[in-house]
Amino acid sequence: MAASITEIKRGLNKGEFSSVEITQDYLARIARHNPALNCFISVTDEIALEQARAADAALAKGEVAPLTGVPLAHKDLFCTDGVKTTCASRILDNFIAPYDATVIENFKRDGAVMLGKTNMDEFAMGSSNENSSYGNVANPWNTEHVPGGSSGGSAAAVAAGLAPGATGTDTGGSIRQPAALCGVTGIKPTYGRVSRYGMIAYGSSLDQGGPFARSAEDCALLLQTMSGFDGRDSTSAEQPAPDYSGALGQGIEGLKIGLPKEYFADGLDGRIAGVIETAIDELRKLGAEIVDVSLPNTGLSIPTYYVIAMAECSSNLSRFDGVRFGHRCEHPVDLEDLYKRSRGEGFGAEVKRRIMIGTYALSAGYYDAYYLKAQQLRRMIKQDFQQAFDDVDLILGPTTPETAFKIGAKTDDPVSMYLQDIYTISLNLAGLPGMSLPVGFSDGLPVGMQLIGNYFDEAGLLNAAHSYQQVSDWHLQVPEAFQ
Amino acid sequence: MSLKPTDVRNIAHLARLHIDEADIDRYAADLSSILDLVDQMNQIDSSGVAPLSNPLDATQRLRDDEVTETDQRDKFQKIAPDVEQGLYRVPKVIE
């Protein structure tokens, strides 16, 4: 079976197989493997086959859009018109979205086929996919380990070959961290690059959508479809998206890459550091110049992030009130009881913790000490990056401090889970683009390398990752049980 | 920073969240440990730094005052828990 989107596109255009055939192949793989992995909350076979038939008809007429007939999976956080959209929460278990997110509309416009909606941490709050009301997702490389989160279902589906590509969202690392832990490629674009319209909000000043695929080449194709200005998102960037695929293959001769010393300090697993060093050597051989940089406020990014993300989530999630859509409790005695019990029954423990911390941080008397302070530190963290980018083209480091941990290992201690995001969350605070690509293994589990770009330089990131993937085959590895 | 059970009950009320009485102590411990993490922010003097709310320092974009949304009441109310004659029904709020 063809593994990459690029190969699927070529096969479809040459008539080597039809979209219906390839879609059926993926649906069969999902039916066979999803029980063990739990990547999907909904499998939309009927819609997939209908879209595939339409794609085949279009291909027969020579009407080829960028992704005509290519099957993909979508994180169950993107609203899909007429299709259940749960955010992995009990409060939305009965929610049939009445409209399409812009990202979904774009994939329809470009001819893609939707295989289903993927599992995730509830409302994208988590780093292990254990906070899903539909059960945890297993890592295809070792099913006793987590796939990462929050877009764990999308990352695991691509790693196991249940979809050649998938969408995700990243508020503090939710694309890059699961991409690293599952050994796939994923990119979080610059804040504002991909429309947030119809992407159920967690932290509105941090959330960005982006793709997962096996390679940077495939990510370029998916990001092209996802990107672009959207008047329906008030924070959408009025910047035309460049031709990402066309920017690949420029090589990285003379590219200046900075290594932040704070990303290689205490707390990083030595085996991951070793794997990253080897990848850095490869980049040197390709002509990149490697220099040291410093991001002195890295350590503050976790507390800063959690104040801002939790404050924004407590505000965003107030819309789930049991009145207009979603879960409503039985026999409410009054309106307050309706709100409290609908929300108490509908939200899981981590979502409740974050809403409560956010509510506390924004409450009278505490605003300056928490929210205002965090916004000041946010600017200092952004300035660290701006200073570093005065001297370098890209910044490089590990994506995560450790490889995929065992299911259940961190569930009793929310703070230890938050520390997993140390290298990823500062980008969301600064609004910068970043990606993770596989660069090796440690004890049989994938290691991800993170590349960080300057504002709106997704093309530069993809080109650097593609250059590395031309001389390595880590991105082509498939776990034995799913070959 | 240590939150007491009464603090948790108060915050839960402000957030309109029902928390089972049996879970209050656990939330008090979890929220206190998160606030301990957050208190690390005080290690740094940030006085005089302008707060950053939008990562690109962008300001609100305005649009022309034109009607762009059409009425989709029936579609939206189809997914509501309880509607009657085009209205959302909730428990009585006015005596």
Written description of the protein model:
- By secondary structure, chain A is an alpha/beta fold.
- Chain A has a domain at 5-255: Amidase signature (AS) domain (Amidase signature (AS) enzymes, Alpha-Beta Complex), CATH 3.90.1300.10.
- Chain A has 15 helices and 11 strands.
- Chain A has an 8-stranded mixed sheet. A 3-stranded mixed sheet of chain A has the order 1-3-2, sandwiched between helices.
- In chain A, strand 10 (434-442) and strand 11 form a beta hairpin.
- The longest helix of chain A has 23 residues, at 367-389.
- The model of chain A has no long low-confidence stretch (mean pLDDT 97).
- Chain B has a domain at 5-42.
- In chain B, strands 1-2 form a two-stranded antiparallel ribbon.
- In chain B, helix 1 (5-14) packs across helix 2.
- The mean pLDDT of chain B is 94.
- Chain B is mostly helical and 95 residues long.
- Classes of the chains: A alpha/beta (483), B mainly alpha (95).
- Chains A and B meet through helix 9, helix 10, helix 11, helix 12 and helix 13 of A and helix 1 and helix 2 of B.
